UniProtKB/TrEMBL annotation:
Alphabetical keyword list: Carbohydrate metabolism, Kinase, Transferase, Xylose metabolism
Family of this protein: Belongs to the FGGY kinase family.
Domain of life according to the entry: Bacteria
Protein name (Swiss-Prot/TrEMBL): ATPase
Chain ranges of the Carbohydrate kinase FGGY C-terminal domain: 291-487
Keyword Cytoplasm belongs to the record: no
Organism, as annotated: Microbacterium saccharophilum
GO biological process, one term: D-xylose metabolic process
Span of domain Carbohydrate kinase FGGY N-terminal: 30-256
GO molecular function: kinase activity
Length: 543
């Protein structure tokens, strides 16, 4: 079980007479585009040889905090998509000597949840509200009570209901709302649809139908009668993996490729969320499998064999791209604070006259953490740049705390920071353990796991479970949606069997079993972490 190797790691240029060149020219390819929190990435694969990544394109971007809300301007969405696609085209030319004019199938993925609201003409009514916003507490609590299931602050329906409760003027003109992936897909194809995995982060899905839960839709319509149109009119159509989700329109082709080279008519798979693409990229779509994705946020997905016994604010139930129920532990804060500390040490190296690359800084600091005490020497790190609902925090204040008798060493500082990335996640995973949810394997991906054997080992200790990492774990999401695009072209109907047979049979992985000392050390750290949340809350209230 592994993520397939990226062509960027292979080096060299494939000759024009190669099978890869012929596949590109003939359009026997699949393109995945993922709008992540810090990067927009395009990944082209060969549908006949799907374990081969043909080319990669990347554009970096960042969210902005405006009017006390996290957002991305829509202009940045399109300039970023065009830049990532142009980078991909250049990589195709450089590696394969081919001109990218057509593609077998395309898929779009993006950060889940959030709120993009449109009027009847398709015009945006208010700035895009991302998953990171935590000002929907009243609505989330009301809906959780009404539905009898946990509705987190970041879910799209919570954003809609909060706007109604707040009497926002735009509600009077509301004709539809969707996620970022749904919006981009609509602009490229003209279809107002969403993959069921992404749709499950907008509104609860009934696993029996693969569609929005009819009873809960009725309850919401009764609650919101007179304030908004019927909910089904507002929501995008939910589609399972492999379904026909439209084709690239002439207008969409120019949006993606302003040079006019890309031809319209290319089939699309249903647009999905980053959680769904992470499950695909780690082959975690079958019951008793799970994955952890670490980036700006960090979340764990565990495919369920049975419904949860109770309702827990730490857990929300979404679905795989095929519609199977998944318990999700989503934390708003991931590796951003860790990256800030790495930047601090990188600047020190530069100021000292010995500059090193960013990757080298992370590698040195991560390996130093291996020499830290198992409990991080009594040090404590909170990575809360934004609010963290699982920890009961509406806003974030990154903190580094120690007592007079703590052991302040570089190794312990870095181990505490790495433990801090997993702290809130571990709180949620403890709840899953109390639910007796069975888990055969957990696979991790994201840039945090690029340095082999460090974050992976600490995560195994935090979860007290084996953690697998593929060869290119930092490149999973865009590849995952490319695989879903390839699945759109296949004749199969079972996504799990398709992944097993075409992508993961015999693929190499590295597995870290939990070290008993790490398990005990992290448990001690987590006890301090839980107790110290009062300090974090005081910082939010005071600073």
């Amino acid at each position: 079980m592994s993520i397939v190797p990226s062509s960027r790691t292979n080096g060299g240029t494939v000759t024009a007479a190669s099978p890869a060149h012929d596949a590109i020219v003939a359009g026997r390819t699949a393109l995945g585009i993922e709008l992540g929190s810090t990067r927009i990435k395009a990944c082209l694969i060969d549908v006949d040889d799907p374990a081969t990544v043909l080319a990669i394109g990347v554009h970096e971007w960042e969210n902005v905090f405006a009017d006390r809300r996290w957002t991305y301007p829509l202009d940045a969405v399109w300039s970023g998509l065009q830049a990532a696609y142009a980078d991909l085209v250049a990589d195709v030319e450089r590696r394969h000597g081919a001109r990218l004019e057509t593609i077998g199938a395309i898929g779009v993925s993006a950060m889940m949840h959030g709120y993009l609201a449109f009027d009847a003409a398709g015009e945006l009514l208010v700035p895009f509200r991302t998953w990171r916003n935590t000002d929907t507490g009243a609505a989330a609590a009301e809906l959780s009570d009404l539905f009898g299931v946990n509705i987190p602050l970041r879910w799209s329906i919570a954003h809609l209901r909060q706007a109604v409760l707040d009497g926002e003027p735009h509600i009077a003109d509301l004709a539809s709302f969707t996620t970022l992936a749904g919006y981009v897909h609509r602009e490229l194809t003209g279809r107002r649809v969403l993959g069921v995995g992404d749709a499950s982060g907008m509104f609860p899905i009934d696993p029996a139908t693969g569609d929005y839960d009819r009873d809960l839709v009725r309850r919401y319509d009764d609650l919101a009668a007179g304030s908004t149109p019927p909910l089904r009119d507002l929501l995008p159509e939910a589609l399972v993996a492999g379904a026909d989700a439209g084709t690239l329109t002439p207008e969409g082709a120019v949006l993606l490729d302003p040079t006019g080279v890309l031809r319209p008519g290319i089939p699309f798979c249903p647009p999905e969320g980053d959680a769904g693409t992470g499950m695909v990229a780690t082959n975690a779509v079958a019951p008793r499998t799970g994955n952890v994705s670490a980036g700006t946020s960090i979340f764990a997905m565990v495919v369920l064999e049975r419904p949860l016994r109770g309702v827990h604010h730490e857990l929300d139930v979404v679905t795989t791209p095929a519609g199977d129920p998944v318990a999700m532990v989503h934390c708003n804060n991931g590796a951003s604070e860790l990256a800030a500390w790495a930047g601090l040490f990188g600047r020190f190296a530069e100021a000292s006259g010995s500059p090193v690359s960013s990757d080298a800084v992370f590698d040195v600091l991560f390996r130093e953490a291996l020499d830290g005490d198992a409990d991080a020497g009594g040090l404590l790190a909170y990575n809360h740049l934004a609010g963290e609902p699982i920890a009961g925090l509406d806003e974030g204040r990154p903190l580094f705390v120690r007592t007079p008798d703590s052991r302040l060493t570089l190794a312990n500082v870095m181990r505490a920071q790495l433990y801090g990335v997993f702290g809130t996640l571990a709180l949620g995973m403890r709840v899953l353990a109390e639910e007796s949810v069975a888990l055969d394997r957990m696979t991790a991906h994201g840039g945090l796991f690029r340095t082999a054997g460090v974050a992976q080992r600490f995560l195994a200790g935090a979860l007290d479970a084996p953690v697998a990492v593929g060869e290119t774990a930092s490149e999973g999401g865009a590849w995952g949606i490319a695989v879903l695009a390839a699945f759109r072209l296949s004749s199969g109907t079972d996504l799990g069997a398709y992944l097993d047979d075409r992508f993961f049979a015999g693929a190499p992985i590295a597995v870290a079993d939990p070290d008993p000392a790490d398990v005990a050390g992290f448990a001690a750290y987590l006890d301090r972490y839980r107790a110290g949340l009062a300090v974090e809350a005081a910082a939010v209230a005071s600073l």
